[in-house]
Amino acid sequence: MTEYKIEINLSSSRKQKPSFDSLEFGKNFTDHMFIVDYTRGIGWHDPRIVPYQPLTLDPACMVFHYGQTVFEGLKAYLTQEEEVLLFRPEKNMERLNRSNDRLCIPQIDEDLALSALKQLINVDREWIPNAPGTSLYIRPFVIATEPYLGVAPSGRYKFIIILSPVGAYYKEGINPVKIAVERQYVRAAIGGTGNAKTAGNYAGSLKAQEVAEKAGYSQVLWLDSKENHYIEEVGSMNIFFKINGEVVTPALNGSILEGVTRDSIIQLLKHWNVPVTERKISIDEIYQAQKDGILEEVFGTGTAAVISPVGEFFWQNEKLVVNGGKTGELSKKLYDTLTGIQLGTVPDPFGWTVKVEQQEGSKYTHNR
Ligand SMILES: *Cc1c(COP(=O)(O)O)cnc(C)c1O
What we know:
Blueprint: E1 3-5, E2 7-8, E3 32-39, E4 43-51, H1 62-66, E5 69-71, E6 74-78, E7 84-87, H2 89-102, H3 110-123, E8 135-144, E9 156-166, E10 177-181, H4 199-203, H5 206-214, E11 219-223, E12 231-234, E13 238-243, E14 246-250, H6 260-271, E15 276-279, H7 283-291, E16 295-302, E17 306-315, E18 318-321, H8 329-343, E19 353-355, E20 365-367
Parallel strand pairs: 2-4, 10-11, 10-17, 14-15
Antiparallel strand pairs: 1-20, 3-4, 3-9, 5-8, 6-7, 6-8, 7-19, 8-9, 11-12, 13-14, 13-16, 16-17, 17-18
Helix pairs in contact: 2-3
Bound molecules: pyridoxal-5'-phosphate (PLP).
Residues 73, 197, 233, 236-238, 257, 259-262, 301-303 line the site of pyridoxal-5'-phosphate.
């Protein structure tokens, strides 16, 4: 039995909190962070909560050169009863370890990670915004810290969790986005790292995003790398289509990131007896469905926006409008239900939310 003692070193000064009703995504960080180190031959050691601060790293650290790094993204919500709720956090820790495995990063004890997260949230509890639609965004990540220029898995790592209060994603109601089908660049290939949350996938996607934005589109629709024909994801979200009463989403194929929101949407639809299928979907099929007038709704899913309706897509010099450019009924219902469950205002039949108990912050010792 291993015993973890998470040391807590509280900051002697507290930062000025930003105004919670005009928060920009990912720009403000709380007073503390969690760190645990890994050293080959020892394992993960010295878990600690410390004041939020810059890292001092050797410029030869492997993360800077070969991108051996993974991350996660989830949120904590403050309920009307001042309770703090996490949404399926164990799914994120499982996925973190799947990403770790793909990047040759050693596995992290998921219970330690979750316990550390809860304690960190308690330390910075006052940073959870309470304005409607706001939340505390949680960014766990791992970096390779061995100073070595050889291409090989690092012998040292840091697993860090930082917290950022974020504003409402939709300030003026849900706005459908316009997307461009990407023909030149691909996000991920079969056998590559598409199903791992690793930095390289995002660095590689910036170019297509930049080109699309210049043309007036807010996201790109990614097609598969082999045939450039099957739909994979939209931006860094999973994608769903409602065609003639049936909901379809691309089946997981190794290059698609397995979203927690995606899984939750599929489970909700099944619970409502709405037909939902995971399968290959070609861009031609979507084009034809739009032409036939049976493409009823299109939406992206992810932690940040939860549901992001698509009002128009650009494909082969044609602008194809979906649902008159408006948010569909099912998209809205899914958004309201999922955000309601996350906030504790709608019943949670799946047991998805996890309460962060106030005393968790004083339970400094974690037993396994
Ligand atoms: C994180 C991510 C998603 C969405 O995952 P959630 O767990 O729902 O937030 C989808 N696609 C990509 C590429 C991602 O990085």
